[in-house]
Design goal:
Elements: E1 12-17, E2 27-30, H1 41-44, E3 47-52, E4 64-72, E5 76-80, E6 96-98, H2 103-119, H3 138-145, E7 163-165, E8 171-173, E9 201-204, E10 214-219, E11 231-233, H4 235-245, E12 254-255, E13 264-269, E14 274-281, H5 316-323, E15 327-328, E16 333-337, E17 340-344, E18 356-361, E19 363-375, E20 378-384, E21 397-402, E22 414-423, E23 425-427, E24 437-447, E25 455-461, E26 466-469, E27 473-476, E28 482-484, E29 488-493, E30 496-500, E31 505-508, E32 518-534
Parallel strand pairs: 10-11, 12-14
Antiparallel strand pairs: 1-2, 1-6, 2-5, 3-4, 3-6, 4-5, 7-8, 9-10, 13-14, 15-21, 16-17, 17-20, 18-19, 18-21, 19-20, 22-32, 23-30, 24-25, 24-32, 26-29, 27-28, 28-31, 29-30, 31-32
């Protein structure tokens, strides 16, 4: 028999997501706030809904009846289109979707009523289950008629075992039938146990070998005359007896147990001549003796001092770091940017500007600290990698720091980049990008008759790629005339350093009234002789 599909009063919503395609899609979404009101076909069975434009009454021309066969999260319904003779419509977002009374509901009711009527037997023998003789037979009627009112034909059976019975229904529990296994835990209460004979008794057994529970006396006097193996001492009697047996030295007149807690160390008080608490507890591990060795874990040492001849244990990696100028940081450094990392807590008293740091990110990297600041909960450290090293957005391992000027492996602050045959263009041993300053020495080579090779020096800031070196005085020819040169340009690019002299025309700075001297044939040709790089 097919049952009616589920129904609900006032069940309606609007379309949140329309079927795709609109006139043939089989998935539709109702508003989230209404989703829980729609029955789940997997438990309640499939049902029909009416879909029609909002603001209109449903008609044959604008409405479609769909059958809901499944429901999923978010208010999505799986539907079968064009039910009960309706045609598929192009359903849009915002259309009404509701459970209305449709023809199918009345048809189903009528069908099921017919099934119910057809299942009702018309005679006692017609029960439609394949058997016969369902109505009382004449013999059965005779049996029923022979039973008097109030008669009881039941005969109680006899039982055997732990519990026996006879025909009258009386039962008897056999001796020894109730064993421990047949008593539920906790069912035997103190009140159901035999009464203790008198006060001052405990239960145990003083007789030899195993046996029944016996009463033992509680001894409140542990004097030698009354103490017995057949008694149990009370706590008070035990204390009283112990106090009388503890021997006291001449200087100890009392034991002051007030305030003594379990595990505390007792001390002798000379003033009061008693033994009392020290308010100090024993360590949970081994106690250090005068000649013992003890490992101290998580202990704070105030102003510790080590004897010079005492051996100190140190890890090989830590010793190697100290010998090379590096101290293990002993903390976690976390990447923040290409030039900064953070440390938990305030570390401004541990690190300062110009300290060196060493860390590992696949390979070792070296930096100097240019700034350090603390803002709870972290300290931010700003570093300079000289154009050689930058921090990667990755885990930092093996952090070290150094207060030394030149710890092992750290890039030298000053490096001789070139010293050799003078030339207008030279190749540096390391790229100029790794240095803040270049110290440049160059010579003024005079062509055309002037004697001597003057030497000059200038400081080059690598924040720029080229600079102008001012004119230089090449000395005097006599007391009236001096020769000066035009300036020179210095260019840098990576490992290349170049100097040019421009026009190189020499001229006189002094003149006599009777003549003018020009030295246009005297050229100044500068050449680089030596370069030193300074990283910071």
């Amino acid at each position: 028999m097919e049952y009616l599909y589920p129904v609900a009063n006032l069940l309606s919503s609007t379309v949140l997501t329309a079927p795709d395609p609109a006139d043939s899609g089989t998935s539709i979404q109702v508003q989230a706030a209404d989703a829980d009101n729609f029955p789940d076909p997997s438990t309640a069975g499939a049902y029909n809904l009416v879909v029609y434009p909002s603001g209109y009454q449903p008609t044959r021309t604008n409405a479609e009846i769909v059958r809901v066969t499944a429901k999923s999260g978010g208010g999505y319904l799986t539907i079968t289109r064009a039910q009960e003779g309706t045609t598929a419509k192009s359903i849009e977002v915002g259309w009404e979707i509701s459970m209305n009374i449709t023809a199918k509901m009345f048809v189903d009711i009528d069908t099921q009523m017919g099934e119910i009527e057809s299942s009702i037997p018309t005679t006692f023998d017609d029960l439609s289950d394949g058997t016969t003789n369902k109505a009382y037979t004449a013999t059965e009627k005779t049996k029923l008629a022979g039973i008097e009112d109030g008669a009881n034909k039941y005969t109680h059976p006899n039982h055997s075992g732990d519990v026996t019975s006879v025909g009258d229904g009386a039962t008897t529990i056999a001796n020894g039938a109730v064993t421990t296994d047949k008593i539920a835990s906790g069912n035997v209460t103190y009140a159901k146990i035999q009464n203790v004979s008198a006060q001052g008794k405990v239960l145990g057994r003083k007789s030899a070998l195993a046996g029944s529970v016996e009463e033992l006396d509680i001894d409140t006097d542990l004097s030698s005359t009354s103490a017995s193996d057949d008694t149990v001492p009370s706590a008070k009697a035990t204390k009283t007896y112990a106090d009388t047996k503890i021997a006291k030295t001449t200087n100890v007149t009392a034991i002051n147990e007030t305030g003594i807690a379990d595990g505390e160390v007792a001390v002798f008080n000379l003033t009061n001549k008693d033994i009392r608490t020290s308010n100090k507890t024993l360590p949970t591990d081994d106690v250090v003796g005068t000649t013992d060795t003890q490992t101290l874990t998580h202990k704070t040492l105030t102003s510790p001092k080590l004897n010079e001849d005492v051996a100190v244990t140190i890890k090989a990696s830590e010793l190697n770091g100290i010998l090379s100028g590096w101290i293990p940081a002993g903390e976690t450094w976390t990447y923040a940017s290409a030039t900064t990392f953070t440390i938990s807590g305030d570390k401004t008293s541990k690190y300062q500007k110009e300290d060196k740091v060493k860390l590992a990110q696949t390979t070792d990297k070296y930096f100097r600290i240019t700034d350090i600041s603390y803002s709870s909960p972290n300290t931010t450290v700003t570093v300079d990698g000289f154009g050689i090293y930058t921090l990667a957005n990755a885990t930092i391992t093996n952090p070290y720091y150094s207060k030394m000027d030149n710890p092992q492996g750290f890039p030298l602050k000053e490096v001789l980049l070139f010293s050799g045959t003078p030339s207008a263009s030279v190749t540096l041993s390391e790229t100029s990008d790794h240095f803040d300053i270049l110290d440049i020495w160059y010579e003024g080579n005079n062509v055309g008759g002037a004697t001597g090779i003057p030497y000059y020096y200038t400081r080059f800031d690598t924040a720029i790629d080229d600079m102008f070196a001012p004119a230089v005085d090449m000395g005097g020819i006599d007391s009236a005339y001096k020769i000066r040169t035009s300036g020179a340009y210095i260019y840098r690019s990576g490992t290349t350093l170049t100097i040019t002299s421009g026009s190189g025309v020499n001229y006189s700075t002094d003149t006599k009234s009777d003549s003018t001297v020009t030295f246009s044939d005297k050229k100044f040709i500068p050449k680089i002789t030596r370069v030193r790089g300074i990283r910071w």
